[in-house]
Design brief:
- The structure is a single chain.
- With 107 residues, the chain is an alpha+beta fold.
- It has one domain (13-101): Transposase IS200-like (Alpha-Beta Plaits, 2-Layer Sandwich).
- Helix content is 27%, strand content 29%.
- The protein is built from 2 helices and 4 strands.
- The chain has helices at residues 31-44, 70-84, and strands at 13-20, 48-54, 58-64, 93-101.
- It has a 4-stranded antiparallel beta sheet with strand order 2-3-1-4, with no helix packed on it.
- Strand 2 and strand 3 form a beta hairpin.
- Helix 1 (31-44) crosses helix 2 (70-84).
- It is globular and about 35 Å long.
- The model has no long low-confidence stretch (mean pLDDT 81).
Length: 107
């Protein structure tokens, strides 16, 4: 069981960093697949991406999950992307960091 604490609630905007397993540089060269994965995850969960930055081995995103479960959104993106690049058992992903943004940002 993960000891990761999840600090989120409805109505907040979050800054998330997702790192690939062993920092494998698979994101930039597969950016179209990553974007397709995000779009497909949007069909399953309601969320808006406010900003993002993609690097070879990790990405940052500012996201408003609305009423959706933030962990489920990230999980879906990871699973869909991993399936698209044919990596078994979601092994291409490592660490996910989530930071709550306070204030009126994103409203």
């Amino acid at each position: 069981m993960s000891k990761l604490r999840r600090y989120y609630s409805t109505g907040n905007v979050y800054f998330i960093t997702v790192v690939t397993y062993k920092r494998m540089p698979s994101l930039v060269k597969n950016i179209n697949l990553l974007w397709q994965s995000i779009e497909k995850a949007k069909g399953q969960n309601s969320f808006n991406i406010i900003a993002w930055a993609i690097l070879p081995d990790h990405f940052h995103v500012i996201i408003n999950p609305h009423d959706s479960n933030l962990s489920e959104i990230v999980k879906r993106i990871k699973l869909i992307f991993s399936a698209k690049i044919r990596i078994r058992d979601n092994d291409d992903w490592g660490i996910t960091n989530i930071v709550k943004i306070e204030g009126d940002f994103g409203e």
